[in-house]
Design the sequence.
């Protein structure tokens, strides 16, 4: 399987870099350099703290939808990257988040038993 440049969310593959649409979304830090390396000039800005929080929330939903459609575990890695960034905003660590997860699992359980609540 051919690895992508990471621009799939832009609706392009590595062989069609000429048609980058306006994205108006948060992208990984190295995406502008990747675009420049392909001979394009990306238009970017650095988000304010408020915009960053909002864009990370949008990105979390976007990545979850991509996983929902593709079932590709690589999308789960993207979700984790967004979650790690959100941890920074909330002034916590991924380790503390994992501790919260474990506490909830101890109190309420996890999803391992595949229980569906019908009514």
Sequence:
């Amino acid at each position: 399987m051919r690895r992508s440049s990471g621009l799939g969310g832009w609706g392009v593959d590595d062989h069609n870099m000429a048609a980058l649409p306006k994205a108006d979304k948060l992208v990984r830090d190295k995406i502008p350099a990747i675009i420049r390396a392909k001979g394009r000039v990306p238009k970017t800005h650095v988000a304010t703290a408020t915009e960053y929080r909002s864009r990370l929330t949008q990105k979390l939903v976007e990545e979850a939808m991509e996983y929902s459609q593709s079932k590709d575990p690589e999308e789960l890695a993207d979700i984790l990257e967004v979650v790690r960034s959100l941890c920074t905003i909330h002034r916590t660590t991924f380790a503390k988040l994992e501790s919260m997860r474990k506490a909830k699992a101890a109190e309420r359980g996890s999803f391992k038993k595949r229980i569906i609540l019908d009514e």
